[in-house]
């Protein structure tokens, strides 16, 4: 696939943590705030999560001089196996649903979990998808660190 034809993001990671714990890190405000944003600050009082189909989520990443709000709606919640939700930032037009994020969690035994992450929507340019993928990779590195502490 050429970079100009890029239409999304696909990332797989293996975590040294049980599937239930990895799912919890995605669905509990204090855990989500600790890793989403990588090294940037996500104040817990700026995180809202109603983790059920049709429920909304929002948060704000704070870097010096800038606030980056993100929000969306949960489409599917199958604990501890799967999450599907929309993702929009402040630059997304109001008339689009946003990107669709699908995350599956597979128990690999020995308290390890395979996470398969997919983001689709076609709302970003190839360059924006590449930048977003780099961001998600940094977030998932922070998730590794968070999982080691809970």
UniProtKB/TrEMBL annotation:
<protein>
    <submittedName>
        <fullName>SRPBCC domain-containing protein</fullName>
    </submittedName>
</protein>
<dbReference type="Pfam" id="PF08327">
    <property type="entry name" value="AHSA1"/>
</dbReference>
<feature type="domain" description="Activator of Hsp90 ATPase homologue 1/2-like C-terminal">
    <location>
        <begin position="16"/>
        <end position="147"/>
    </location>
</feature>
<dbReference type="InterPro" id="IPR013538">
    <property type="entry name" value="ASHA1/2-like_C"/>
</dbReference>
<dbReference type="InterPro" id="IPR023393">
    <property type="entry name" value="START-like_dom_sf"/>
</dbReference>
<comment type="similarity">
    <text>Belongs to the AHA1 family.</text>
</comment>
């Amino acid at each position: 696939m050429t970079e100009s034809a890029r239409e999304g993001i696909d990332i797989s990671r293996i975590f040294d943590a049980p599937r239930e714990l990895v799912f919890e890190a995605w669905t509990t405000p204090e855990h989500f705030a600790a890793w989403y944003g990588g090294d940037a600050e996500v104040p817990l009082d700026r995180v809202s999560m109603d983790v059920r189909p049709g429920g909304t989520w929002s948060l704000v990443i704070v870097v010096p001089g800038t606030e980056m709000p993100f929000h969306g709606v949960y489409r599917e919640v199958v604990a501890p196996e799967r999450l599907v939700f929309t993702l929009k930032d402040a630059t997304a037009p109001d008339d689009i649903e946003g990107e669709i994020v699908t995350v599956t969690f597979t128990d690999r035994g020995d308290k390890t979990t395979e996470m398969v992450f997919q983001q689709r929507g076609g709302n970003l340019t190839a360059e924006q998808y590449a930048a977003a993928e780099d961001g998600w990779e940094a977030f998932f590195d922070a998730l590794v660190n968070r999982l080691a502490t809970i």
